[in-house]
Amino acid sequence: MNCQREIPLDLLSEEEAWMFFKEHSGIGDNSPSELLKVASNVALECKGLPIAIEAVGSSLKKKPIEVWKAALYSLKHSKPMDVEDGVRDAFSCIELSYNHLRSKRDELMFLMCSMFPEDHEIFVEDLIRYGVGLGICGKVESVDMARNQLRASINKLLDSCLLMHSAKNQVKMHDMVRDTALWIASRSANKKILVNLDKDLNTLVENGDINDSFAVSSWNKKTNR
């Protein structure tokens, strides 16, 4: 952003993290004691990372205690092992929000958003058109119905903090969320996504770089297309 002064943001303290977590999860001091205890432990597992706290808190909002307990167990025992230590906890937390998406359609929309370059402002209408073209909704009665379902998926991702509002009729994906989405895709059978910003597409084909990819997104740096 060409800032004149860079100010490092440290991890949140336990107290700050708990306050931030309560804000996004809907947990209050008057919540049942058992839920408060589990929620506090879930917040601790987010390791003070704001993006993780926001994503996990939003994904568990208004969920029953059993879901909270399952989430806590998942955060404690399902750590990604193929990424650097500094981002491992954040990836786990964001993946938990992905796992709580309600439908396959929501999951596919999430993965599709990761195919855009970092910091790309995505037009909602483009997402809907791509979603219809790729058949994310499966068999539906009409194009209007497909559009409604895809818009509902986009809203779900926004509510879960897996997407962010940008300019009017546009959304963005946080860099760490995008990295997590690509990491999730790389671990899933037949879902690896390659986002190409540098090489000519013919070069990728010749080198065999796309052989194991389910989807390839190739962008021109000058035109972002």
UniProtKB/TrEMBL annotation:
Domain of life, source organism: Eukaryota
Enumerate the InterPro entries for this protein.
Apaf_helical (IPR042197), P-loop_NTPase (IPR027417), Plant_NBS-LRR (IPR050905), WH-like_DNA-bd_sf (IPR036388)
KW Methyltransferase (keyword) present: no
Question: Which key words are in the record?
Answer: Leucine-rich repeat, Nucleotide-binding, Plant defense
Specify the protein name.
NB-ARC domain-containing protein
Organism of origin is Stylosanthes scabra
